[in-house]
Amino acid sequence: MTTLLRDAELAAAFDHGARAYDRLVALNPGYHAHLRRSARRLGLPDRGAGLRVLDLGCGTGASTAALVSVLPKARVVGVDASEGMLERARAKRRPPGVSFVHATAEDLTTAHDLPQSAAGPYDAVFAAYLFRNLTDPDTVLRAVHRLLVPGGRLAVHDYCLGGRRRDRAVWSAVCKGVVLPLGTLTGDRDLYRHLRRSVTAFDTAPVFAERLRRAGFDRVRVLPLPGWQTGITHTFLARRPPYEPGGER
Ligand SMILES: C[S@@+](CC[C@H](N)C(=O)[O-])C[C@H]1O[C@@H](n2cnc3c(N)ncnc32)[C@H](O)[C@@H]1O
């Protein structure tokens, strides 16, 4: 069974995978459109005017581009553990309100590890294809909750199987037929074996929704995406409640 990559090992795999990442995701029908759809689902007003949004695990900036297209007036901070992925993100043309910070999601959990430029509070956090990669997703979710303003919104966009046998079979077929052969061609076999297993080993969509509630979020909703990703890729929406009995978590 493939071992999951974690922390420094995973960051190194993404450093290497950064070269081919954009070309590979361009082959995935709907990849960019689905990110934009999840960004729209945040439901933020006035194209993001006056708002601060964190793109956690921003990678080469595909999710950042989705946020900028939906929320062109927002200030967007992209954070990622892989310097190689960030180098690609920084090389792209961006509006002035966008910045990138090299930090891990785990750095969010201890204020002193977090560079000032990434410190919250945020009106919204967007995390695409991140959470199943984390050693301790619950601790990071609680940190995200703390970084949000009261009433702030979270959108998690990820491969999280719906729970039907068919969903697992489609995921397995896509990985065997497309993802692993392409990943092997680009010299990133371990990263794409990790991708396959990180999805099957992680929560199903209802279980991840419950994880969000346990971390203190309310208004948790699980929304599907169209195409082959139906039952495989979801948008999870959640909110930090505006008023919390007992105050800070
Ligand atoms: C599959 S990529 C997704 C990138 C981007 N969000 C997108 O939609 O294309 C996952 C990203 O999460 C980052 N990542 C994984 N574990 C992380 C961690 N613990 N802290 C911060 N970033 C992490 C990786 O470096 C990688 O760039």
UniProtKB/TrEMBL annotation:
Keywords: Methyltransferase, Transferase
UniProt xrefs under SUPFAM superfamilies: S-adenosyl-L-methionine-dependent methyltransferases
Enzyme Commission number: 2.1.1.-
Protein origin, superkingdom: Bacteria
One function term, GO molecular function aspect: methyltransferase activity
Keyword Transcription among record annotations: no
One GO BP: methylation
Pfam family, one: Ubie_methyltran
CDD domains assigned to the protein according to its UniProt record, in alphabetical order: AdoMet_MTases (cd02440)
Coiled-coil portions: none
InterPro entries from the UniProt entry: SAM-dependent_MTases_sf
Keyword Transferase belongs to the record: yes
The protein's name in its UniProt record: Class I SAM-dependent methyltransferase
Natural source organism: Streptomyces anandii
